[in-house]
Amino acid sequence: MDLIIVRNTERMARIGADLIQRQLATKPDSVLGLATGATPLNLYREMVARHRRGRLTLERAITFNLDEYLGLGPEHPASYASYMRRHLFGPMGLDPARAHLPNGTAAAPEAEAKCYEARLQAVGGIDLQLLGIGLNGHIGFNEPGSALDSRARVVCLSATTRAANQRYFPLDESTPTHAITLGIGTIMEARRLLLLASGSAKAAAVSDALEGPITPEVPASVVQRHPRVTVLIDAEAATALSPIMRRQAREPDAIAVS
Ligand SMILES: O=P(O)(O)OC[C@H]1O[C@](O)(CO)[C@@H](O)[C@@H]1O
């Protein structure tokens, strides 16, 4: 595991964008696995800024998002399709045909999840998977208790996740109860993982994920098994890590992709 602890989220965004830029320089037609939520927002802003300066393009890339709420169409402002259009795809001028998300309003959601997985496998799987981590240790919408070899499927969201994401919904609308997510097994097949976390609220989840037992109760703990994982976190999210783990952290200014 390559652990990078940085001062703040701006620095996280710059290093994250460096890693994505290098991935695309090596393989311009990379399949990028993308995440939503608050965590990657600064990174997406940095990617857009680099795009405007002509340094970063997704022109030949293909993207697959981790998840989508069940019942929300792409025009719903809290859908992840809408989030991605607003924060990344629109500003970067990504051809919509290259950007994939599960269809949250599919008539047969389980079939849609299977089809989404099949579409991903058809392009050869994910080259670089970006991940955030939930307060309860989830990755994608794989909540605690998810099988470590799970595939794309319909999941029931936990009370913690629904409460944490309520802020994205109008007062009179509650967070959906279900979602379609890529599975933990699918995520683990990505050739490279980039896990981001920021803020003290994530400190316990980060320490459980990186130093605790690998268990379905902490879905993110599975990243310990991945051969090419970069964990990029800010100082606040690192506060619960053991001194031994912190000592393993790489000099933030000296990143190099192995
Ligand atoms: O970044 P946040 O908003 O704390 O969310 C954590 C994770 O939970 C999700 O919202 C659910 O997939 C992810 O998109 C995100 O990585």
TrEMBL record:
GO biological process: carbohydrate metabolic process; glucosamine catabolic process; N-acetylglucosamine catabolic process; N-acetylneuraminate catabolic process
Reactions catalysed according to its record: alpha-D-glucosamine 6-phosphate + H2O = beta-D-fructose 6-phosphate + NH4(+)
One of the Pfam families matching this protein, by short name: Glucosamine_iso
Gene3D superfamilies registered for this protein in UniProt: 3.40.50.1360
GO cellular component terms, A-Z: cytoplasm
CDD domains linked: GlcN6P_deaminase (cd01399)
Keywords: Carbohydrate metabolism, Hydrolase
Domain Glucosamine/galactosamine-6-phosphate isomerase: 11-227
Molecular functions per Gene Ontology: glucosamine-6-phosphate deaminase activity; identical protein binding
Involved pathway(s): Amino-sugar metabolism; N-acetylneuraminate degradation; D-fructose 6-phosphate from N-acetylneuraminate: step 5/5
Subunit structure: Homohexamer.
Family affiliation: Belongs to the glucosamine/galactosamine-6-phosphate isomerase family. NagB subfamily.
Protein name: Glucosamine-6-phosphate deaminase
